[in-house]
Write a structure and sequence with these properties.
Blueprint (H helix, E strand, L loop, with lengths): L16 E8 L16 E2 L10 E8 H4 L1
Parallel strand pairs: 2-3
Antiparallel strand pairs: 1-3
Length: 65
């Protein structure tokens, strides 16, 4: 078993960041075919949900786990 007791002491660097593709769509639209590899627009910092489309949300592995 892996010991994660000191995990809080690990520093996360900018190089640990990853971009996660996110699809914004309106219901009850049919689920589109997966085009997540084409996501290139960064998620806007407007505080509102952006228009329909694929966006890249930058996060870290620590936030995901």
């Amino acid at each position: 078993m892996t010991d994660f007791s000191s995990a809080d002491d690990v520093v996360v660097h900018g190089s640990d960041a990853v971009d996660v593709p996110v699809l914004v769509r309106g219901a009850p639209d049919r689920r589109p075919t997966p085009h997540w590899k084409t996501a290139s627009t960064p998620w806007p910092n407007t505080g509102t949900v952006p228009p329909h489309g694929w966006y890249l949300v930058t996060t870290t592995w620590r936030e995901i786990l």
